[in-house]
């Protein structure tokens, strides 16, 4: 089907394609100029007529709000059925295959009756280095952990992974979710250490998504303009205690606070946009 082009001297044109289910049950093929004023009309496929930029924004905004389901108070309806679990690990190096996993801290995320995200229950485990694990002296000195200190009361990696997974699976079932998704600051690091431990232990019932995760460092960059955890917390108005940093439970807790703050702020922003759009109509 031919596409109408507006009369413009712009050097570049872009085509946006939204599938049928995404915008008012229509396939939109919209051509627009990045240099055109906001007031200029955008031309669509002749079958659908002309769509102004204001109407396009409204369609996209309504799609976002509808699919985010901001009115829900059931967390199982908010993240594709996944339960977000904020995780932080402390390790004896940076290689998840060679270096030891030493500590796991985790917090569940709750959604209250007003649709506000809250930090929920916590989990904490100290872990013994697996047999043959490499210990990077600089890493353990930096985090302040003696991997072989008996006062840590650390458990064998296999036992910890099993107990941790069972606790997460129980919460997933309680919240009527399908599985868990890991949330972490620079999530690839934490996710890779947990998944490598799962594989070493040959544990078959890991509740976490095997490759997807939610990275709060990336979210903080988009919403707050910073990736460093302490700086992002400062911008978000969250108190950050440097003397307690690099403890898995503390870092998981502060990351969970930041995650909830960003989620709640984003929801408020979308609701404000919806209200503004409704008022201007």
Describe this protein's structure.
- This protein has 281 residues and is an alpha/beta fold.
- It is built from 7 helices and 9 strands; from the N terminus they run E-E-E-E-H-E-E-E-H-H-E-H-E-H-H-H.
- The protein has helices at 53-68, 137-143, 157-174, 187-200, 216-224, 229-236, 248-280, and strands at 14-18, 28-32, 41-43, 50-52, 82-91, 101-111, 117-126, 179-184, 208-215.
- It has a 5-stranded mixed β-sheet with strand order 7-6-5-8-9. Strands 1-2 form a two-stranded antiparallel ribbon.
- A hairpin with a 6-residue loop joins strand 3 (41-43) and strand 4 (50-52).
- Helix 5 packs across helix 6 (229-236).
- The longest helix is centred in the C-terminal third of the chain and has 33 residues, at 248-280.
- Residues 1-50 and 277-281 have low confidence and may be disordered.
């Amino acid at each position: 089907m031919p596409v109408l082009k507006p009369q413009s001297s712009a050097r570049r044109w872009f085509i946006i394609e939204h599938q049928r289910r995404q915008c008012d049950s229509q396939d939109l093929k919209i051509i627009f100029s990045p240099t055109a004023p906001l007031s200029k009309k955008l031309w669509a496929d002749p079958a659908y007529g002309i769509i102004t930029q204001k109407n396009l924004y409204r369609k996209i905004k309504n799609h976002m709000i509808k699919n985010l389901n901001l009115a829900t108070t059931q967390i199982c309806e908010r993240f594709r059925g996944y339960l977000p679990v904020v995780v932080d690990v402390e390790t004896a190096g940076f290689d998840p295959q060679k270096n030891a996993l030493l500590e796991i801290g985790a917090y569940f995320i709750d959604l209250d009756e007003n649709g506000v995200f809250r930090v929920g229950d916590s989990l904490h485990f100290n872990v013994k280095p697996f047999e043959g694990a490499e210990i990077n002296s600089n890493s353990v000195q930096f985090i302040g952990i003696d991997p072989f200190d008996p006062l840590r009361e650390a458990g064998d990696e296999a036992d910890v992974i099993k107990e941790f997974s069972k606790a997460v699976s129980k919460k997933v079932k309680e919240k009527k979710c399908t599985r868990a998704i890991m949330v972490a600051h620079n999530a690839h690091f934490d996710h890779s250490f947990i998944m490598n431990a799962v594989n070493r232990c040959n544990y078959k019932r890991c509740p976490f998504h095997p490759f997807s995760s939610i990275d709060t460092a990336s979210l903080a960059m988009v919403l707050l303009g910073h990736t460093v955890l302490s700086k992002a917390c400062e911008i978000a108005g969250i108190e950050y205690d440097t003397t307690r940093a690099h403890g898995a439970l503390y870092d998981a807790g502060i990351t969970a606070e930041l995650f909830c703050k960003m989620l709640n702020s984003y929801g408020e922003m979308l609701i404000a946009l919806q209200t503004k759009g409704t008022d201007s109509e």
